[in-house]
Amino acid sequence: MNLSVKIGKLTMQNPVTVASGTFGYGAEYARLIDLNLLGAVTVKGIRLNPVPGNPTPRTAETASGMLNAIGLQGPGVDGFIKKYWSFLKSLKVPTIINIWGTTVEEYAEVARRFDALGGVGALELNVSCPNIKAGGAQFGTDVKLLAQVVAACRQVTTLPLITKMSPNVPNIAELAKAAEDAGSDALAVTNSFPAMAIDIHTLKPKLANITGGLTGPAIKPIAIKLVWEAAKAVKIPIIGMGGIQSADDAIEFLMAGATAVAVGTANFYEPQTPLQVITGIREFMERRKISDVREITGSVVIPKTEGRC
Amino acid sequence: MLEQTVTIVANERDTDSYFRVVLRAPQITPLIQPGQFAHVRILPLKDALLRRPFSIFQVAGDTFSILYKTVGKGTDVLSRMRAGEELSVIAPLGHGFTVPKTGGETPLLVAGGYGMAAMYLLAQRSPQKGIVFVGGRRRVDILCEKEFTAIGWEVRATTEDGSHGEKGLVTQPLLAEIQNSKFKIQNCRLFACGPTPMLKAVGKIAEDFNLPAELSMDEHMCCGTGVCLTCVISVKTGDSCEYQRTCTEGPVFDSRQILWEAAK
Lengths: 309, 264
Description:
Chain A is an alpha/beta fold. Chain A has helices spanning 76-90, 104-117, 137-140, 143-156, 172-181, 220-233, 247-256, 266-269, 273-287; strands at residues 5-7, 10-12, 16-18, 41-46, 59-62, 65-68, 95-99, 122-126, 161-164, 186-189, 193-196, 211-215, 238-241, 260-263. Chain A has a single domain, classed as TIM Barrel (Alpha-Beta Barrel), CATH 3.20.20. The longest helix of chain A has 15 residues, at 76-90. Chain B has five helices and 16 strands. Chain B is globular, with a radius of gyration of 18 Å.
């Protein structure tokens, strides 16, 4: 049975990674799960310099999900390399580094730095964080800017580039195609959805940032649709994510057109989820006598509909 | 830190809206240090996905217990669970209190409401017995006094409505003790757990009298394990400051580290 998949030139031993920002830098969960069983470890977003992040409260629980506005707190490129790289490098599975910047040049500079580091599995371009004032989602919702960011990173690295798409666009196909044409090796679909919650007793927004990004099972059906639409528009592989908490959820993403999946918010309440998903995909394949996980990708059957009225 | 499915041995009302739940967790209990917490997934919660953090109250044999107040849907559902039902627990978590060494500092404990529960293990494991100052709004908010007296600790209670102990705030008898103590005060260390305004007041007293103080900070939490960066507080670092995680660098912080201007 084959569970391995390719994301550009990166080989993952199975199609399951974790969503950036839900798994720290890997080391935090090393005592709870065997990281070497994952397809890849994806770390929290990093820009050139350290980032303090947003004031608190930074998260709020909602029905079947949560809002967050962490503000991409992080140690910067040098801090990340100093604190976490020797640990990540020692793993048997590849590391996908999520990077961002406030300018096209900064994205490229961070990409160049990680290319020079050696041993990185892939770079995920975060062009879709809804919680920062400059950078982030502005690059993921404008076709021209998106193409510029991807092209600028493409020029400075041969590492696989995964563009993490914003869900907050009228037509994801157009942006997906732009990322592919600019040299992206894969897409990650999708990031959190801009959202808001109010405490009716204090009359205040539940987040200090006022608005945040909605994640968790609540967004899964919307994410499935975005993966399906993006998959029809491009030839490059897609890493599907949004509310996965079981193997069944992951298989749904694969059927919609994803080549791999990422477990996100579920890590916060059930850190075993990625491993349960891997086991569950294997069991599904055994039951259905599927020998290669890649057969599941895009296998959704769209029936011919005939109107009755 | 371990993640385990544990069985409820007992889950009973303490007073008013306070409950005690006892969990059988043979692998977790030997690891527990005073001031640490358990991150609990209340499985019947359904659409509320996140774990709830609780201070660990007592450890006995292969069980540990939590003393909690019903404050929302999580604790409400928990209070209706029965012996034999299961919870998922990640524990022990966080950086706890410094247990005094034999012949070392005398601990003075300050607790507000159910913060009292978080201090029990420290009192039990401290070779020196000190005083525990406990405050609450009403008599029912003064918890587990008996448990502290049973291990030889002096308890001084205050209530805001005067229904139990001295009337007023917990910091009053603390201040009186510091100013005229039976202990050598410069050999005392303050430990506190309770609402943020109380912790801030204890931090101020510690500063005024130049006493070390360890404060258990209560922040809204999400993952509890250090990855999500929800529960951060502002901590002084030299002449600058940075966000540190209540779940990992805390919940217990040295009071001198805390940047109160930024606290809620």
